[in-house]
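For reproducibility, we list the full input for the pyridoxal-5'-phosphate complex.
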Amino acid sequence: MAITLAGNFAEYREQFALPEGVIYLDGNSLGVLPKATAAAVAKTIEAEWGNGLIRSWNTADWVNAPRRCGDKIARLIGANAGEVIACDSTSVNLFKALLTALALRQDQPQRNVIISDIDNFPTDLYIAQGIRDLLTQKKIDLQFVTRDAMVSTITALGERAAVVMLTQVDYRTGERYDMKAITALAQSKGALMLWDLAHSTCAFPVELNACNADLAVGCSYKYVNGGPGAPAFVFAAKRHLDTLDVAGTSAPISGWFAHEAPFAFDPLFRVVRGIERFTVGTPPILQFAALEAALDMWLTVDMRALRAASVVLTERFIGEVESQCAGFGLTLATPRDANIRGSQVSFRHAHGYAIMQALIARGVIGDFRAPDILRFGFTPLYINEDDVVKAVAHFREVMVSREYERAEFQSRGKVT
Ligand SMILES: *Cc1c(COP(=O)(O)O)cnc(C)c1O
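The corresponding predicted structure, in tokenized form, follows.
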């Protein structure tokens, strides 16, 4: 089975501009450049910006890029056209999604709790703290608990909760929440469920509507390969968009792109209907050109086959590291059960940072997450089992020779 799958994805590998001598296991942090992207961006710069100039907002349909890309992302995450919009960063979209959740529950002021995971990616937790401090009159109570305590916390506090906000795949360990079960639990208490899909989108099939998710956000520069700083996205289920429209609820950030008629230049804000309520201002068109090129490639990918190939790669990597690098103090931080992990494998080691630097110097690029996590992402479109075997051979040499003890591998850059 693995051979057929590798064969299927071999043609995708050709579509990426992989540098010579690099085994790239960091597609979970910044995806590789698709060859089509360079051409697409060049066209947008030269023909659309260079020649078309201001006319391109209409003639090249720049103005609809957020919605058009949103509709394409929708197909990758089990949502419908009109439920997703591409815009801003994940952090900004979390702010908008949380405010929207609170707006949808404002008729129940006793629901003042936001539940999340204390090991969630910090920006998610920071945004929630900022909202609590901004909306002092709501007396928001933040309950950040461990994964082990999540079900009992939702069960105990859910009737006071406005929203449960979780990242489906833990950025450090790669452990995955059961989206359907947690969503159902939160909703059984009357709370809304907000998912962060940063490490899910294009890593495996996501089924937002089949899981009845209320709101979601996600990132496009990781597995999606949309480029550094690619526009992120927001999802809101149609039933909620309809409720917000009927209630006339304002936009979470009332910029002119969230106005019903931006080019009427009306001094009074009137919110647009539908998913566009989540947009704010002028979209970054060059980034959108890069994102759309990646999305067009993704729409040709069989996500189930992708997942099967991802499982083959992660299983192989775990097996190889545990046999080749046994006895060097590495411990698996990722669940052994493939059903509850994303598309990454993490190991803990006291010298994790320096070990990763030594691997990167050898062309095996993963990343490090404090305090002690070596993180390796597996992206079947451009990584195969051969890469896994070669990467682990380097890993073994780094451990056997204690290469990571060299002074050059000890100093930390701003980005790890
Ligand atoms: C990567 C990541 C983000 C990134 O947020 P930005 O605003 O794009 O910097 C947010 N949340 C999670 C869970 C992430 O993994």
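The CA atoms of residues 38 and 79 lie 29 Å apart. The chain has two domains: 10-30+302-409, 41-298. Both points were considered when choosing residues for closer inspection.
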